[in-house]
Design a protein that fits this description.
The protein is α/β, with parallel strands linked by helices and about 220 residues long. It has helices at about 15-25, 50-55, 75-80, 95-105, 150-165, 185-190, 200, 205-220; strands at about 5, 30-35, 60-65, 85-90, 110-115, 130-135, 170-175, 195.
Length: about 220
């Protein structure tokens, strides 16, 4: 079963709590929380204080994606602010093994994210200890970009390697251009956590949008 994870990057930040409640009541499983520092990626978003405030008001599984230069420095702070899962980029300055261990030491899930140009093999050494791999299906930094279909072979390679080492429980998340049309492509390749931003938050009926993405994923598995 796929996990539907709307990204707050496309939400109305003036009423972020209500926006999150709306998609959760509409059937969303997780809330995806994008953190950008203006250095690792060319954009600046939100950080620890906003997550702390939001998590106090809205009970949710907060899926935090750190697009920052040195994520290891901020693991404790984001975990304490309410993160239930933290993904960081393999391309960042932080040592991957140490960062995964630091996340797990906070009692939450650990994930590694890959930019489009980074090969699947970059994450293979860590699959035995990871909970999730995030494959970016757009260049990280801005929402609303066009889906890169050529990322599907990367998803498939990661799924096959995870299965080969006995990690059939591995979560593979995709982020970028995900909607009811692109979902069958990534789901058939092995993705089971679907991050959708504008495809959910920009719709008048968010519940309908979430249901359409879920159905598209379920139709692949039948």
């Amino acid at each position: 079963m796929s996990i539907i994870c709307p990204s707050v990057l496309s939400a109305d930040f003036s009423s972020l709590g209500d926006e999150c409640r709306d998609v959760l009541s509409g059937g969303a499983d997780w809330i995806h929380y994008d953190v950008m520092d203006g250095v690792f990626v060319p954009n600046i978003t939100i950080g620890i204080p906003v997550l702390r405030s939001l998590s106090k008001k809205v009970d949710a599984f907060y899926d935090v994606h750190l697009m920052i230069s040195d994520p290891a420095k901020y693991v404790d702070a984001f975990a304490n602010a309410g993160a239930r899962h933290i993904s960081f980029h393999i391309e960042s300055q932080s040592d991957a093994a140490d960062t995964i261990e630091a996340i797990h030491n906070k009692g939450i899930l650990a994930g590694v994210a890959l930019k489009p140009k980074t090969p699947a093999e970059a994450v293979f050494p860590y699959l035995e200890v990871l909970d999730l791999v995030l494959v970016m299906t757009v260049e990280p930094g801005f929402g609303g970009q066009k889906f890169m279909a050529d990322m599907c072979p990367k998803i498939r390679k990661i799924r096959e390697e995870a299965s080969r080492i006995g990690r059939d429980d591995m979560l593979i998340e995709v982020d970028g251009g995900i909607d009811a049309v692109t979902t069958p492509m990534v789901s058939s390749a092995g993705a089971n956590v679907l991050v959708a931003g504008s495809a959910v938050f920009n719709k008048k009926d968010r519940a309908e949008a979430i249901a359409a993405i879920r159905k598209a994923a379920e139709d692949v598995s039948r």
